[in-house]
């Protein structure tokens, strides 16, 4: 493989073409609506610069959470629409205008601040407006809609966010959708957006004018639907040391494991500082070598973990052999379940010590 760094014991491979294919799939699914891309939190830990660049040919609108992320993205994408989900803090409207960012205004306070800023500048800078339709996180409450502060205000987008869209038949989905239609009626002809990844798979009633997938772009199925998304990443780590232990030997911090029989162990160069949760070992986690399951033995440490490699013929493994953590044999959802969390948290916890490799089919042509 091109350009492998020999000096890092773990590597993350990200397939940019798979992200583009997932984008194409989601936009086909939401046909009729514009499909944005959510790249907050460094594109869910995978690298915002690389991913935004890879999507720039297809995507018109991007979403980030924080103003700072918006500024970084603006330098990568000079001409795209960039929405900032958190809006801005009281001293922040100037930054929005300077970087040509579109704040998502979440409170009457933000609306007032933005409108005052626009009138000082004598210019109607674009803004989006969020409604709280039931999640009680961001957005205007239903009773805010009649407020004086909104009189004559024309956002370029109204939006809301679903709390339970990962469950297809959760009654809150329909309740939020109805409330969204009702609240957005106060802003006729303004484009509307309700669905993130999971909302897209609730069907066309949820698509409105713009959908905002994040996690599905990165290959995680957002709910129980089979969405046939392409896997995007592989995470592997190298064996640093091999050893044999006899029955009764303790393994790792706290000696939480004692060998019930003699076995061969491999100490692998990845740990919880790299995003392999300590809970992963307690949840029965394992690594893989060519289709063979390698149970994690004892506790995950900060920089390493230990697996039982007794099932692999001895001559096949050496110091430096690569084992797979996320890949064809084990997806992110499995790792998440065994770590007691969700795929989103696994992705955004991926550490920064890996060698990172970005593959793009288009580069091969
Ligand atoms: C994070 C986020 C998204 C993207 O969510 P996914 O579940 O990753 O698709 C969309 N909209 C809002 C408001 C968000 O906070």
Give a description of the structure.
This protein is elongated. 27% of the residues lie in helices and 22% in strands. It is built from 12 helices and 19 strands. The chain folds into 2 domains: 32-218, TIM Barrel; 233-359, Beta Barrel (Lyase, Ornithine Decarboxylase, Chain A, domain 1). It has a 9-stranded parallel sheet with strand order 2-10-9-8-7-6-5-4-3. Strands 1, 11, 14, 17, 18 and 19 form a 6-stranded mixed sheet that branches. The chain starts with 9 loop residues before the first strand and ends with a helix. 43% of the residues are buried. The model has no long low-confidence stretch (mean pLDDT 95). It has 365 residues and is α/β, with parallel strands linked by helices. Helix 1 crosses helix 3 and helix 10 (332-338) crosses helix 11 (343-349). Helix 8 (197-200) links the parallel strand 9 and strand 10. Pyridoxal-5'-phosphate binds next to helix 8.
């Amino acid at each position: 493989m091109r350009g492998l760094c020999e000096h890092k014991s773990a590597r993350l491979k990200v397939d940019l073409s798979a992200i583009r294919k997932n984008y194409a799939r989601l936009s086909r699914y939401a046909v009729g609506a514009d499909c944005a891309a959510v790249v907050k939190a460094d594109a869910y830990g995978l690298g915002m610069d690389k991913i935004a660049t890879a999507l720039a040919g297809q995507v018109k609108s991007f979403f980030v959470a924080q103003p700072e992320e918006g500024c970084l993205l603006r330098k990568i994408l000079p001409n795209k629409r960039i929405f900032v989900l958190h809006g801005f803090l009281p001293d922040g409207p100037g930054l929005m205008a300077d970087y040509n960012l579109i704040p998502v205004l979440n409170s009457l306070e933000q609306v007032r601040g933005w409108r005052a800023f626009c009138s000082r500048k004598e210019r109607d800078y674009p803004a989006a407006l969020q409604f709280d339709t039931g999640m009680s996180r961001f957005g205007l409450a239903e009773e805010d809609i009649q407020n004086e502060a909104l009189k004559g205000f024309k956002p370029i987008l109204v939006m809301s966010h679903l709390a339970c869209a990962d469950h297809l038949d959760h009654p809150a989905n329909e309740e939020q959708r109805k409330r969204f239609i009702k609240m957005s009626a106060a802003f006729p002809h303004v484009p509307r957006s309700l669905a993130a990844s999971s909302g897209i798979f609730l069907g066309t009633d949820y698509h409105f004018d713009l959908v905002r997938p994040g996690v599905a772009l990165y290959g995680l199925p957002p709910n129980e639907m089979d969405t046939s998304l392409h896997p995007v990443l592989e995470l592997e780590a190298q064996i640093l040391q091999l050893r044999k232990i006899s029955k009764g030997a303790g393994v790792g911090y706290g000696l939480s494991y004692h060998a019930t029989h003699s076995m061969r162990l491999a100490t692998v160069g990845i740990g919880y500082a790299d995003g392999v949760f300590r809970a992963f070992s307690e949840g029965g986690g394992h690594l893989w070598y060519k289709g063979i399951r390698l149970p994690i033995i004892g506790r995950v440490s900060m920089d390493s973990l230990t697996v039982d490699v007794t099932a692999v013929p001895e001559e096949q493994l050496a110091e430096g052999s690569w084992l797979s953590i996320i890949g064809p044999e084990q997806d992110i959802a499995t790792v998440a379940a065994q770590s007691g969390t969700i795929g989103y948290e696994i992705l955004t916890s991926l550490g920064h010590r890996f060698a990172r490799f970005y593959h793009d089919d288009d580069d091969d042509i």
